[in-house]
Write a structure and sequence with these properties.
This protein is an alpha+beta fold. Strands 1-2 form a two-stranded antiparallel ribbon.
């Protein structure tokens, strides 16, 4: 999941859009705010990004590679505790919406 710090004067949504582009080259058609997640010492703003399904993510800047993974696959990857928590909460959130 792309992420990073919010710059001074930047909204969380603008930061999410910028980080998505900087780290994956993707541009979101729309960003929808989902929730906040409190990590160890960082508050994460989580957005759902609607991107063109014909585009593929290309790793840029500080990431080495990127790809699409199912939530179950994320649990097998080397991911931080906050990342795992965000994915779990996202899955619950989406499940609640499908209801």
């Amino acid at each position: 999941m792309p992420g990073g710090r919010i710059r001074r004067g930047e909204s969380p949504q603008d930061a999410a859009s910028r980080e998505l582009g900087e780290e994956t080259t993707l541009v979101a058609d729309a960003l929808v705010y989902l929730f906040q997640f409190n990590g160890f010492d960082t508050q994460h703003y989580v957005f759902f990004a609607d991107v063109d399904p014909l585009l593929s993510a290309q790793a840029r800047n500080e990431i080495v590679r990127c790809g699409w993974f199912t939530p179950a696959k994320v649990e097998t990857l080397s991911a931080s505790v906050p990342t795992r928590g965000i994915v779990a909460l996202f899955c619950r959130h989406i499940g609640d919406l499908k209801g």
